[in-house]
């Protein structure tokens, strides 16, 4: 499977990840924390935009590391991927959540840890599924390309 991904594919990957996350987190956060859906929805959107940018950057770094080190995308590699991604996101999100919700940094950190407990398996599962779906799409595209080339060679 090719590890080369276009900017368009990276954007599609990150967008799919974030749209599904917003659909789950905004209503759940509003309900659990007692804020309005609009207030939590805006926070979720801000965090999502930060996460989407981080997702594209981090996955490019992860792909480059895989090409250099030659490791496979095993369950263990995806677990490390999810943990490192979430650590980077915590560093960015805690100050934003503290400001937006008018709470202290410690409270925002504790809230973010709770969110990470949701996002660790979500990130792992989403990316594991994405890898498998992508492999099938890439293989299907390669088969179609070979069939077209074979048809062109036969016709000539």
Q: Short summary of the structure?
A:
The protein has 156 residues and is mainly alpha-helical. It has helices at 7-33, 37-69, 75-101, 105-155.
What does this structure look like?
- The mean pLDDT is 89.
- It contains four helices and no strands.
- Helix 1 (7-33) packs antiparallel against helix 2 (37-69) and helix 2 (37-69) runs antiparallel to helix 3.
- The chain starts with 6 loop residues before the first helix and ends with a helix.
- The protein is an all-alpha fold.
- The radius of gyration is 19 Å and the shape is elongated.
- Helix content is 88%, strand content 0%.
- The protein has helices spanning 7-33, 37-69, 75-101, 105-155.
The radius of gyration computed from the alpha-carbon positions, rounded to a whole number of angstroms, is 19 Å
Largest sheet: none
Strand % is under 5%
Shape: elongated
Helical region count?
4
Low-pLDDT segments: none
| Measured distance between first and last alpha carbons | 30 Å
- Which class best fits the helix and strand makeup? mainly alpha
- How many strand units? 0
Tell me the layout of helices and strands.
Blueprint: H1 7-33, H2 37-69, H3 75-101, H4 105-155
Helix pairs in contact: 1-2, 2-3, 3-4
Identify the notable features of this structure and list them briefly.
156 residues; mainly alpha; 4 helices; elongated
């Amino acid at each position: 499977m090719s590890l080369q991904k276009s900017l368009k594919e990276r954007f599609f990957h990150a967008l799919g990840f974030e749209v599904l996350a917003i659909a789950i987190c905004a209503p759940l956060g509003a309900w659990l924390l007692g804020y309005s859906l609009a207030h939590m929805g805006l926070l979720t959107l801000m965090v999502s935009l930060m996460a989407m940018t981080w997702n594209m950057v981090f996955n490019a770094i992860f792909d480059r590391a895989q090409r250099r080190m030659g490791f496979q995308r095993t369950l263990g590699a995806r677990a490390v991927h999810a943990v490192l991604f979430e650590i980077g996101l915590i560093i960015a999100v805690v100050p934003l959540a503290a400001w937006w919700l008018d709470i202290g940094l410690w409270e925002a950190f504790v809230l973010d840890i709770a969110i990470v407990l949701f996002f660790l398996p979500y990130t792992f599962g989403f990316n594991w599924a994405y890898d498998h779906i992508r492999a099938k799409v890439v293989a299907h595209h390669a088969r179609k390309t070979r069939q077209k080339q074979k048809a062109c060679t036969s016709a000539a």
